[in-house]
């Protein structure tokens, strides 16, 4: 039992110093022994340092201990080191960012079905114009064959 624990300690020493300090101050429930696992962030004994929390006695709200910028930096470091799942919940986490992106989408006005995005006329008409040009180019071999068959003299107008 001591050998695996010492191995984890050696792995933890290879982490970035900022991550080491954070994990020492706020150890995740995954690495705590079962006897102390009840006294973790989820149970409310140690509040999540990334979220504001209400003081149990005074009822006043306390700001998060880590600003959003510092949270993002910690999450980036943890992602690079492969230990992001050990961090407590934060809005800067990868899973939360992906969930937020899926839930809200791009949020660009006019990207819904049947809506048009504002812009200059030449920008709005670019897609249909290119589609029309593409279909014309696909029909070009047939048009050339007709031209060669009829000739310039009898070619009155672009055949419709």
3D architecture notes:
- The longest helix has 14 residues, at 68-81.
- Among the domains are: 11-36 and 46-92, no CATH class; 93-129, no CATH class.
- It is built from seven helices and two strands.
- With 160 residues, it is an all-alpha fold.
- It is elongated and about 95 Å long.
- A two-stranded antiparallel ribbon has the order 1-2.
- The protein has helices at residues 2-13, 17-25, 68-81, 94-104, 121-124, 126-138, 140-150; strands at 53-54, 61-62.
- A hairpin with a 6-residue loop joins β1 (53-54) and β2 (61-62).
Helices and strands: which structural class? Answer: mainly alpha
CA-based gyration radius? 31 Å
Unreliable residue runs: none
Approximate shape: elongated
Distance between the termini: 84 Å
- Series of secondary-structure elements, N-terminal to C-terminal: HHEEHHHHH
Q: Helix fraction?
A: 40-55%
Strand segment count: 2
Give the strand order of the largest sheet, numbering strands 1, 2, ... along the chain: 1-2
Estimated share of beta-strand residues: under 5%
Question: How does the major sheet shape up?
Answer: 2 strands, antiparallel
Individual helix count: 7
Query: Overall pLDDT, averaged?
Result: 85
Offer a few descriptive terms.
elongated; 2% strand; 7 helices; mainly alpha; 160 residues
């Amino acid at each position: 039992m001591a050998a695996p624990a010492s191995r984890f300690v050696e792995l933890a020493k290879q982490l970035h110093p900022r991550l080491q300090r954070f994990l020492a101050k706020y150890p995740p429930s995954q690495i705590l022994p079962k006897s102390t696992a009840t006294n973790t962030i989820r149970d409310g004994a140690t509040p999540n340092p990334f979220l504001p929390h209400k003081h149990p006695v005074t009822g006043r709200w306390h700001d998060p201990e880590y600003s959003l910028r510092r949270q993002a930096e910690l999450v980036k470091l943890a992602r690079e080191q492969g230990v992001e799942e050990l961090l407590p919940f934060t809005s800067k986490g990868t899973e939360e960012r992906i969930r937020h992106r899926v839930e809200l989408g791009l949020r660009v006005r006019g990207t819904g079905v049947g809506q048009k995005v504002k812009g200059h006329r030449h920008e709005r008409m670019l897609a249909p114009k290119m589609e029309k040009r593409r279909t014309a180019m696909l029909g070009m071999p047939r048009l050339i064959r007709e031209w060669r068959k009829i000739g310039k003299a009898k070619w009155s107008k672009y055949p419709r």
